[in-house]
Design goal:
Blueprint: H1 6-22, H2 24-44, H3 56-61, H4 71-79, H5 81-104, H6 108-126, H7 135-153, H8 160-167, H9 174-177, H10 188-214, E1 229-238, E2 241-250, E3 257-265, E4 271-276, H11 277-281, E5 288-290, E6 297-298, E7 303-305, E8 310-316, E9 328-334, E10 339-344
Antiparallel strand pairs: 1-2, 2-8, 3-4, 3-7, 3-9, 5-8, 6-7, 9-10
Amino acid sequence: MISKTNMQRDQIVQQYDLAGLFTLAHRLVVGWTYFSAFWRRLVLENKPDPESAGYIGEKFNHFLPNALGIKPMIEYMVSNPEVLWWAMVIFTIVEGVVGLLFMLGYMTRLMSVGVFGLAMGILLGAGWIGTTCLDEWQIGVLGVAGGFVMFLSGGGKVSLDGYLSGKSNSSPAPWRQWLSSGVLDISLRSLKRIAVTGAVAILGLTLFTNQYFHGGVWGTLHNKSVKPKIEIADARLADGLLEFEIFRVEGVDVYGSFLIGIDLIDPSGNAVLSLKGDDMAALSFDAISNAYVAKVKPGAHSLVVPLGARAFISLPLPEGNARVSGTHHLTLTDISGATWTAEVPQL
């Protein structure tokens, strides 16, 4: 524990006040990044509305294909819309409270833990998303580092913590300073050890996630947000139907993959089924069974497949082709020219 003369104690208090002053701009900007999420979702727009075009649950669904460590949790929520809605509402309120109190500097250290946790969630869930500057990864790692820095410094004098501390006639309990601001009741040696260990651990997390999501440390760089990619599974021919599952796992999160071709070729090279863009635009919703809140659906001139969407598709075969035997080949064609193929056994 720190045991100092009054003069030494005043010097330590002044050092913490300066640390809080030096990190003021950081606290205000980071706080706004989280509070603004609440502001734009609930005040500027109504993004918690499941029927709105910008429903936050669909944005969350985009994280699913390549999330790190929390993929099962995301999949559970996007498979259960009511659970997802409550989770998104709670998450938005937490972002608003944490962001606002962080800006005001009230219970600064507790709010810094909140910033750390929110940033970690963004990093693990969406660190792989970003078309140009690895956007979500940068937001995540900088938020983690920022939360840690603010925990060490506290809010200083220019904060509600500092104002309330100055109005109080008694010294705050040591445990309270671990939640708000002021001098941490810990030896300088231990404080240095925490600061260095934390910094090294966060650097390690930064390098690991940069490499895991983007190959940014060694090897070949890759960005899973640039080109659409669709995985085909469980393709089969049965009872005069072509059935298969699609799952969009890569590409821009704000822009769908637009399928303009579905072709089924028999073992002899003949086209058994050939659907073009307008054919898929006219598909019945009964032909598409969506698994998550991000939905595959007919568009104006194509079949729209949002990032993270998974759907089972069932298409009737033309008469006279329902009993063709042997392994067929299914090809999906995107408007970009990208194609994906799968073998289709006959059951």
